[in-house]
Amino acid sequence: MHYPASALSLVIFCLFVGAVLGLSFWLGSKAKSAKGYYAAHGQVGWFVNGIAFAGDYLSAASFLGICGMIAFYGFDGFLYSIGYLAGWIVALFVIAEPIKRLGKFTFADALDAQFHSRGIKVTAAISTLIVSLFYLIPQMVGAGALVTPLLGLDHHWGVIIVGIVVIFIVVTAGMVSTTWVQFIKGSLLVIFCTVLVIMILARGLQVGEKGQTQKLVIKADGSKFVHGEKQSATNDLTPTGRIISLPEKYKDGKTGPLGPFEYLAALQGSKVETYKLASETKTEESDKSITVTKTYEPERRDGLSLLMPGAYFKDIRPQPADAKDPWKEVKGKLNFFSLMLALFCGTAALPHILIRYYTVKDAASARKSTVVGIASIAFFYVLTLYLGLGAMTSGALPLDFKAEGNMAAPLLAKSFNPVLFAIISAIAFTTVLGTVSGLIMAASGAVAHDIMTNLLKVEMDDHAKVKAGKIAAVIVGVIAMALGIAFKNFNVTFLVGWAFNIAASANLPALVMLLFWKGTTRQGITTSITVGLISSLAWILLSADAYQNLYGYKDAAEAAKAALAPFNQPGIVTIPLAFLVLIVVSLLTKGGTRKTHRTSAEIAQSHA
Amino acid sequence: MSNEAEKGHHDDRHVSPNARLGLSLFGVYLTLYLGFVAIAAFKYEWFNLAAPGGVNLAIAYGMGLILVALLLAAVYMMFCKPEK
């Protein structure tokens, strides 16, 4: 679709980014020492930190990815909301307090607190670096997807702008600023999404006109044609997302304002029209250049089936009795199990979430922070269901999920009014900004603190450590920008799934066993992280999703045939594998190091 | 028994119940979460069933999981003992 820039959006956008940056500089001037830079003096209040947890967590993937997925696939997008939130239960009930007792600055330090082993520090730092990078890619891709409808700029400009601003924030200020940036962003996101949901419910549902087949022609020079004329603001594809029939009791074709449950019940009895990419053909012109024609066809869908899982994860729905491949359903279900497991276990293992535990002063504050975080995240995830379904029925939905699915939420706001659209887009942009800065902090901390000090044995004073952290931040930021541009055609939620799988496989087993099993040895931890990291990464790179989206296999069937991994999500195999490896290696190496390890309860005892 | 050992024992009583409470609440949530995943995988047609509020079971269970997470977190915070 063609998105003209708007002066209003630009002004509001610049005001937001300017305000956030100004605040970041002001607060950052207070944080000069190494401890201040990394952990904000351990003084950030629990409420602020709790909302900042939400700000960290409600990334571009949550806001843009989930809304887009719900808008196109209904309930399946909501599965991500459920899984992402469930992960917090692991974080709060199992990890939160013990880790606060063990921790210094980074995930690697927390794991190493009892062993003083270079091996643990280095493997944990490498794992932090890789997970951060994998989580950074979707954020950067999200930034690009946002900038297109907001400012009328190409994808790569969004990535470059976010990259530069974030490097600037991290290099000039550090953790204090990012906590406050996250706090402001988290609050604004929840407040404005609530406003938007109230507007969705007040608007209710109404029957719209049925759509026709639409064609988009893309010439070799990149110029696009719709209805035979050049694509422009006045000649464009007609957006989709309409109710084409309502339950019988709404006789005049509209419902009027609805309550939250009434809305879902009404949608359940309706039929909805969205579009799908029916074909993509390439033709050679007389001058040998290739012209691509994309044909989009309307798809009429049953409200009830959209409010049940299985529109995206198709294989979990019972297959017909005469299905050609009986294993398809089994693999589909394992894949689904695996994703739900990775979402459940991944949250507590994400390095940029863990680092926030160190920014409050004690375990009680960490607990309160997490509860505040869970409350705001839970509320937000309930909102995502309405935002997604609102976008599905807004009449403003783009036709192509893969190319423009991430824009569903901002475009929904645009269907109400342009000021709201500008505000929501600006918030989404600062969302990306905040998440990316947190991740770059975690990654550069891993490089500067763990790899430089422990692996390369570089002796650094306070000042040199901060400087090394900043140089690392610039390098990680530039790599993230490059990847964000390279992966621009990837689906954001797909990429986040990767990050969760890797984090859960590499970090969680080591963390849980260290906290709860006395017999854990340093060799066990090092091997478990290494095996979890390599196995999940290899599985992902050998999966059908990678074959289709990375290695250029044309369609899903061809990719599935060629792929070496039996299904896409590795978690169900690689998480238990990492646990098993840790236990076996620890038992084999028990004699040497057991005496040095104490569980968190023992540490608390000795501190008394 | 020395003073220090007594103190350690005393502190242990405060720390362990918190961890135990956390793990039991985790167990409650895990059961509910697995229930949802199991329905999706083995009893898919149950998601069709009508639930209170006029919505189907899939929506009610999904919303319920979010609500229960919040409730359990609140319970945990209320019943955790202070460390000192």
How do you describe this structure in short?
Chain A has 608 residues and is α+β, with helices and mostly antiparallel strands. In chain A, 66% of the residues lie in helices and 7% in strands. Chain A has helices at 7-28, 34-39, 46-57, 60-73, 75-102, 107-112, 118-151, 155-172, 175-203, 260-268, 303-306, 327-346, 351-354, 363-392, 401-404, 408-416, 418-455, 462-486, 492-506, 508-516, 522-541, 544-549, 556-562, 571-588, 590-593, 600-607, and strands spanning 214-218, 224-226, 229-230, 242-245, 271-284, 290-302.
Q: Main traits of this protein?
A:
heterodimer; A: 608 residues; 26 helices; B: 84 residues; mainly alpha; elongated; disordered N terminus
C-alpha geometry of chain B: elongated
Q: Ranges of chain A with pLDDT <50 over ≥5 residues?
A: none
Radius of gyration of chain B, Cα only, in angstroms? 19 Å
- The level of helicity of chain A is 55-70%
* Shape call of chain A: globular
Give a quick account of the main beta sheet of chain B: strands, pairing sense, barrel closure: none
Tally of DSSP β-strands of chain A: 6
Q: Which two chains touch over the largest interface?
A: A-B, 52 and 46 residues
Mean pLDDT of chain A: 82
State the oligomer.
Answer: heterodimer
Share in β-strands of chain A = 5-15%
Care to count the β-strands of chain B?
Answer: 0
Secondary structure tally, helices of chain B: 2
- The end-to-end distance of chain B, rounded to whole angstroms, is 21 Å
Largest sheet report of chain A: 6 strands, antiparallel
Distance between the termini of chain A: 64 Å
Spans where pLDDT lies below 50 across 5 or more residues of chain B: 1-15
Radius of gyration of chain A: 24 Å
**Order of helical and strand elements of chain B:** HH
The average pLDDT value of chain B, as a whole number, equals 79
Helix/strand-derived category of chain A reads alpha+beta
